[in-house]
Amino acid sequence: MKLKKIPMRTCAISMEKYPKNELIRIVRTPEGVVELDLTGKKNGHGVYIKRDLDIIKKAEKTKKLERSLECEIPLVIYEELVNIINKES
Fold first, then answer.
1. What number of helices (H) and strands (E) belong to the chain?
2. Are 20 and 46 in contact (CB under 8 A)?
3. Helices (H), 3-89
4. Which domain CATH number covers 41?
5. Of 66, 75, 21, 74, the residue nearest 47 (C-alpha)
6. What does the pLDDT look like over 26-72, one tens digit per residue?
7. Which domain holds residue 17?
8. What is the count of structural domains for the chain?
């Protein structure tokens, strides 16, 4: 039986590669709106971040996501990320 290929993506904060399903995608849409993309299929410039509270806190502190997406990220996005991770735990 043929093994299915697992897509790998790089976390924008830790710069480590992880399977795509272990990451959350954050998208800047063509209209310039920043939103979470839990489906992984929204149109726009996307960045992946690991599902880890420490990584999210580091992202907020260093503003690395803002540089990657080339726009300001509202605090609501960081709060949504924390809520998603807390629900999974």
1. 3, 5
2. no
3. 53-62, 64-69, 75-88
4. 3.30.1230.10
5. 66
6. 999 999 999 999 998 999 999 999 999 999 999 999 999 999 999 99
7. 8-88
8. 1
